[in-house]
Structures are given as structure tokens and as C-alpha cells.
């Protein structure tokens, strides 16, 4: 809530031109130690939009946390006008243990909008949705791929949202992937509340990749510049390549178990029949070449050296949006 240009958030009042770090607390550790989840608020003297920047919904997605950390450490979060709220680590419990889920075993991104008296994850979701999210005019949420699966830098939006399409284009990631909002996800909750959200995916769990980080930070700067919120001291670069809009895609799955090595690079454009990698065994008895089933772009690669029959090893586009 904003009254007379004062932001009322998590029990604190933050006026125009002020900075504040507010604690977002839901529960203690089992040792009774408190955990402070910092919510970092920067407000310009000039009123304007409120942008919420989040990461760490999954505790093992370190690259997303690093992206928001850089936005803060470089001062990108200090707006020329309006307000920027940063939460670098939402699932601090998982971050401490390097675990995707909460200690209660639940995936935070599958319990939104949460319940006040529900599970630990559900309580965190509820507090985020009721006490922070209503302030936001736009959300930038940063994620990474799962364990051993390296995602190309991409923005995920649903079809038919013209405003999100324009913002995704401005962000300038190599790919925009049209995907449905998952039930009980943070993105779906934002959609239901009418709050536009750009979900960024890039890299993989337990990993920090400088190319992914740079792409995301530069994209955030472009969006803030578009909103006339970016401080004048920051330069805005043009995207390195034209964005590819993915209308449909499919996973290429391993036909055999064995030792796996991808030879194609992430973001690569391939033709039907191109060799993407190979599967072998420890004894040199066979060597199976994995080939592209169609023309398209490779935007996810499984980097595990050991795979099993049926494992998803490449994500390839099958239909692009004109």
C-alpha cells in the first residue's frame, strides 16, 4: 500500500528517496535460530512504477541469485524514478542446504498463492503474495535449469499477452519460449492478480555461468530503461543476436543408457540429421550418435556424463513464431 507517497511494506514505512532493508521472516530453524530474508528496497525521489525482482524460489538455483546480487551490487536497483524491490533468495531454507525444495519437502513454486496456516512453504508463499506482491507493477523472476540440464538464456511467457511480448522483446534474451503457466506457480499467481511477470531461465543448478548472468543483467537494464527507471550512469547495450520466438518444442530422449557427451553447443541452429552428441559404454562395445530429428535450435542440453535410457538429453525447437 502507498499512501501519500509512503510505501507500507512488511511493517515498515519507506518514503520517496529512501532506502530500506526489511526482514521477510516466516519461521525459525529447528535450532530456534532466526533466518532473515532481506527485502532490499530502493525508492527514487520521483514517483513511478514499482518493480519486484526475485530469485531463489528454488534453493539450488544459484545463478538466479547471482543475477539479482549483481543488480544490487552494481547499483542498478537504485532507480531514476519509481521503486525497485529486490529479494535475491526467497527460499533461504533451501539455499542454506543447497536443496531445491523447502525442509518440508515441498516445491515452493507449486504451492502459490499459499495458505496462512499451511505448510512452511505454503506460509512463505502466502506472505509473499499478500504482503509484497500487491505492491508490484512488474515482476522480474530469475530461475535456472534443473540439475545437469543447461538452459539457454530465455524468457518464458504465455501466448496472447501483448504487453509481455513487448517486454520480452525489450529484455532481449536469445529465446522467448511460449509456455503455459503451471498451476500453483508464482507466475500463474501473478497472472491471476493481473501483475505482468517476465520469468527468466538460464544455466543450470549449482552453477554460476557468466554468459547467462550477463545476459540477464543486461536484459533487466533494458527493461528498466524502457520504464525510464534506469539511472543515467548505466549504458544500455543492444542484444547480441535477434531473439528467436519458440512456439513449440520437444525433448530428444536417450535411446540407450551409457556415457554421454554433447558435441553441439547451446543456442546452436541445427539441421535434421546433424549429429548432436554420442552415447557410448565404458567398454568400447558401441557408439551411438544422437541426431537432430528436425531443423531447429537447441536450447537445453543435458550435461550429465552418465545417462539412462529415456533421459531427456536435448530440447529442440519444432515450431517458431513468425
UniProtKB/TrEMBL annotation:
<dbReference type="InterPro" id="IPR053138">
    <property type="entry name" value="N-alpha-Ac-DABA_deacetylase"/>
</dbReference>
<dbReference type="Pfam" id="PF24827">
    <property type="entry name" value="AstE_AspA_cat"/>
</dbReference>
<keyword id="KW-0378">Hydrolase</keyword>
<dbReference type="GO" id="GO:0046872">
    <property type="term" value="F:metal ion binding"/>
</dbReference>
<dbReference type="GO" id="GO:0016811">
    <property type="term" value="F:hydrolase activity, acting on carbon-nitrogen (but not peptide) bonds, in linear amides"/>
</dbReference>
<keyword id="KW-0479">Metal-binding</keyword>
<dbReference type="InterPro" id="IPR055438">
    <property type="entry name" value="AstE_AspA_cat"/>
</dbReference>
<protein>
    <recommendedName>
        <fullName>Succinylglutamate desuccinylase/Aspartoacylase catalytic domain-containing protein</fullName>
    </recommendedName>
</protein>
<keyword id="KW-0862">Zinc</keyword>
<dbReference type="GO" id="GO:0016788">
    <property type="term" value="F:hydrolase activity, acting on ester bonds"/>
</dbReference>
<feature type="domain" description="Succinylglutamate desuccinylase/Aspartoacylase catalytic">
    <location>
        <begin position="47"/>
        <end position="227"/>
    </location>
</feature>
<dbReference type="InterPro" id="IPR043795">
    <property type="entry name" value="N-alpha-Ac-DABA-like"/>
</dbReference>
